[in-house]
Write the structure tokens for this entry.
Amino acid sequence: MKAGGSMNNCSNAYKNGQIISEKQGDKITYYYKSGKIKATGQVINSMFEGQWLFYKEAGWLVQEGNFRHNLKDGEWKRYNKDGSLSYHETFKAGKLLKK
């Protein structure tokens, strides 16, 4: 779409018209420009809460973890492209407890 088109005036869309994020209830999904899912999880009172999943644009799960009041809280895992565990960390109120 050319400059001045309706999608360019929307702060929730890339220039190609693909939406950046979509909220349904307290669940929000973020998208790459290609339309593939980038991240998904809960937002309550404008804060990240609960389990979040993060994906590479190629579609594989790269990271999963929990938030409490916008801070990392609980287990966080990062994965390699082949699905093997890259690292596993535990957080409490945003502070790393163990790796």
